[in-house]
Amino acid sequence: MTATQITEIAGFFDEELAPIVRRMADRPRAQDADDGDGREVRAMVWEGLVGLDALGAPDTVRLAELLGSVLYQGPLLDTLTARELVPGDVLGQEPVALAVTDEPWRERDGAISARCSFVGFAAEVEHFLVSGGGPGPALVRAGHPSITMRRYEEAGRGEAYEVEFAGTPVAAWAGSATEWPAALAGARVRQAAYLVGLAQAALDHAVEHARTRRQFGQPIGRFQGVAFRLSELSMHIDATRLLVHDPGATAHAAACLAAASDLARTVTTRTMQVNGAAGMRSDNDAQLYYRRAAYESVRLGTPHRLRRESWDGRR
Amino acid sequence: MMPAFTPEQDGFREEVCKLLCEDAVRAEIAQSRRLPYGEESGLLEVHRRLGKLGWLAINWPERYGGSGATIVEKAILTEEMIRHGVPDNVHSLGIDIVGNAIHLFGTEEQKQRFLPGLARAEITANVLFSEPDVGSDLASLATRAEPDGDHWRLHGRKIYNMKAQHSDFALCAARTSTGPVSFAGITLFLVPLRSMGVLIEPVWNLSEERFDLVTLDGIRVGPEDVLGEVDDGWQVLGKVLPLERTGLDHSAKAERTLAALREHAPPGCEERLVELETRVRAARLLAWRCVANLHEGRPDEVHSATAKWYTSETAKEVAVAAVELLGPRALLDARDPAAIAEGVFDAGFREAPGLTLAQGSSEIMLFFVATSKLGLPS
């Protein structure tokens, strides 16, 4: 991705759109809560990003960090991963969801049966890329009657679904089983970059609060206990950012993602502390960063599992 | 430092556990965590049962609805209620903070008026301290009590308090006079909440329980509603707040989350679990040291601050570690069919940030230890 493209996409998420994007997939907890205008906004944002050629970007790691910084939630990162395995002319410009499962799944007569947990935006993608635990990444068309899904009620309050494929026809085999690890490594580095962007946004939110919130006759950012903690987080973000943008990052993708995962949870937890009780309010973005970091930081594997995988991969 | 429990105290713990493990009690607790969104429990039947037995405020005299036992028995009850998942805010606000404040500083008339009802779980109470611009810096509060004959009328807004919608009355801090010293001139009032002149509005937030914005619009209170002396509320606050800072509630919450985490953590997490277990054990020891101090009649504010900081930070760490170790499943709401451990991890994760903010933030505890224990300049 060229610097110009990044600038254009950053410009797309301007001061007016960015607050809407941050909450476009945040569905309040409520019995049978509908999605309000969220789905419509997400479709509009998707069109905007595709129009800016986000799907053809050469530097997707920078793009991922930008997406994290505006707390973008949608199928773009999954779609970028799918496009590493499936030719663009098959997918066109349609969104894809990764449906990864640890459970064994099977293929029979060109159809697959699998149950996948925490699939993002399952209700609004055109394809699923089913992978992990089975014969190889399989691309299936969404909307087939053999596919059932339900949205989770979870703290992230996003669009995460349990999806069951019961004899769903395979549209295309997406590369060989050996190509999946490389695609997964790319996805993990992008996820790490997304978390770095998210952490930076949360820190910016905390810094702004520390500048303006006054207690004991002065801005709380003047207290060293607050200021030094924020400085420390800033330095950790800086270090992790270099890690994920390093050209050799994919060779250490699992470890990189584990580091970014820890970073995002730490920064957002401390952002909550700096913001005080106000940060817990539903209309305050601090709690939004805290909840989204928790979900996004374990979406592609827990840090514990990622580090184990990284270590085992050296043997 | 664990007290040496007497056989009677061990027996009391067993009795409490037996009651809390009854099917009906467990069902009520589980149900209280699956209420429709936007609803939350107030006093439960289990509170009333404990109240009838004289256990809810067991350390208060019998004439006030207690059993005349010690703070150790009260701590045992609190610890077991939290370990068994009984929603604790309504209890801690009504008994541990407001009730204790009345017990220690109230007039005999106030004790008779409020304590038996609180102890029997017939009424409940909350606190109205924080304001939109006043959090840790409580001395700068702006709610004012304007003289009205020999009474006052209260004007102001209180926020980030909980359970006001269920409470019969509140302990409210308001300014009765102004002067060069900000913490002078604050008075504590016992304010009826179900009255004209009090507007309660929900403030939805991250946790399972709503905050309330309470607007005091000229509600009239009299001398009989003043807790302690007029203009001297700061002294009362200074003595009451450390009493609730044993950290026992936080250490019990950490224990509860950790017990579920041990059950559900995948293989290979053992070292992290041992690390957390050790912290939780230390947290419990710090909490019980504070209880022992109170029992011996020599409360120690440095010990209280240490316990509050360590136990709340530990409970928060365990809650966040559950997400780290279990992945997205830890975030599933108790109402989701795939939820694990009845949603204890999700509830813990959403409650966690508040633990190091409420009852004196971590920063206030650190400052206190820096200046009072280490002797650093303030």
Automatic annotation (TrEMBL), chain A:
Alphabetical UniProt keywords: FAD, Flavoprotein, Oxidoreductase
InterPro entries: AcylCo_DH-like_C, AcylCo_DH/oxidase_C
Domain Acyl-CoA dehydrogenase/oxidase C-terminal: 183-302
GO MF: acyl-CoA dehydrogenase activity
PANTHER family, per the entry: ACYL-COA DEHYDROGENASE (PTHR43884), ACYL-COA DEHYDROGENASE FADE28 (PTHR43884:SF20)
Name the record gives this protein: Acyl-CoA dehydrogenase/oxidase C-terminal domain-containing protein
Organism: [Actinomadura] parvosata subsp. kistnae
